[in-house]
Design goal:
With about 325 residues, the chain is mostly helical. Helices cover about 65% and strands about 0% of the residues. The chain contains 16 helices and 2 strands. A hairpin with a 2-residue loop joins strand 1 (about 150) and strand 2 (about 155). Helix 3 runs antiparallel to helix 5 (about 85-105), helix 7 (about 125-135) crosses helix 10 and helix 10 (about 175-195) packs across helix 12. The protein is globular.
């Protein structure tokens, strides 16, 4: 499959995919993990990569809230989704240190007060996390070993290993508001990828973006399923309910859904959000239907039916990534 970087557009629409959810922290959760646990904030605070990333804002003994604020200050730019090389490097170091903490102490080591700031960071880097999750872009493979951000015509990018990112996302996702934050960002970016496909595209130009979306969303589906499987029935039901409510807020009130031709990203995200709000199926089942729903809405908006092989490739890719993600998380990243 050819590199995708020549087709990626770092436009203002990308920032729309990285909008994060505001709101109060949710209740107490069973932060189930692979082993007995540990103080993730204390461990992260002692990691030299975090001290380097935070720079002058770092201080010994930072609370989880202080640590989260310091991370956001170090890795976020003035404009959503736009970063300097220094900020992208800080994000890479934060993710690497967080993965090592999770790997040592389990998924529960990232507590509620740190989960949402980390999710907000991940959401702001949705263009990068999308590429990492779908694992198709040659640029991201090339720059994985040098451990350095890079700049191209579309902006600054960073990368970390696919499995490490999934582990970090799983850890923060025990908080339903954190999971909704990163899923909402991915939903927006996935819509951007489809909206940028030119009319009349065929072959790889037509199939690569929706297949990439199916892979990324399949990983999110696997993470959600793993979280719920490690919660009590009551907590799992509450987690699903809060995630559904948060994602359904991508559409507000009774305002009409935008027309595809004038706002394709808004059309896709808001149409799906509205359908999720009214979906009577179990939440995890409804979430797994997002990729197929996007394909249907995309075809309707474009007024052009998708070839059957594109639809089947997306279904197969999403199902495979879902299963691979569950296996990865079950094995603690050591598949």
């Amino acid at each position: 499959m050819p590199p995708l970087s020549s087709r990626r557009k770092r436009t203002a629409m990308l920032a729309a995919g990285a909008v994060v959810l505001a709101g109060a922290a949710v209740g107490t959760w069973a932060w189930a993990g692979r082993d007995g646990g540990g103080d993730g904030c204390a461990a992260l605070g002692k990691d030299g990569r975090i001290r380097t990333a935070l720079g002058t804002s770092y201080k010994s003994g930072m609370s989880c809230a202080e640590l989260g604020h310091g991370m956001k200050t170090a890795a976020l730019g003035d404009k959503a989704g736009v970063h300097t090389v220094r900020q992208a490097q800080a994000m890479r170091e934060i993710l690497a240190a967080t993965f090592d903490t999770v790997d040592r102490h389990g998924y529960q080591s990232i507590g509620p007060s740190l989960a949402l700031p980390l999710a907000q960071l991940l959401a702001d880097y949705a263009p990068d996390t999308h590429e990492i999750l779908m694992d198709l872009d040659a640029d991201y493979a090339t720059h994985l070993n040098d451990k350095q951000p890079w700049r191209d015509a579309f902006g600054v990018h960073m990368t970390v290993p696919h499995d490490d990112l999934v582990q970090v996302m799983r850890a923060v996702s025990a908080s339903p508001s954190a999971y909704a934050t990163i899923r909402r960002a991915e939903s927006g970016h996935a819509a951007v990828q489809l909206a940028e496909v030119p009319a009349g595209a065929t072959g790889f130009d037509l199939s690569t973006p929706p297949v990439g979306d199916a892979l990324a969303l399949g990983a999110f589906d696997g993470i959600a399923a793993h979280v719920v499987s490690h919660l009590s029935k009551r907590d799992g039901t509450s987690w699903e309910s809060q995630v559904k409510s948060a994602l359904a807020e991508m559409t507000r009130g009774k305002a009409p859904v935008p027309v595809y031709k004038t706002d394709p990203v808004g059309y896709l995200t808001q149409s799906w959000s509205r359908s999720l709000r009214n979906d009577a199926k179990p939440v995890l089942t409804a979430l797994r239907g997002q990729s197929a729903a996007y394909l249907r809405l995309w075809a309707e908006g474009r007024g052009a039916a998708l070839p059957g092989d594109v639809v089947s490739k997306c279904q197969e890719s999403g199902d495979r990534e879902y299963q691979d993600t569950l296996e990865l998380l079950k094995n603690g990243g050591r598949s």
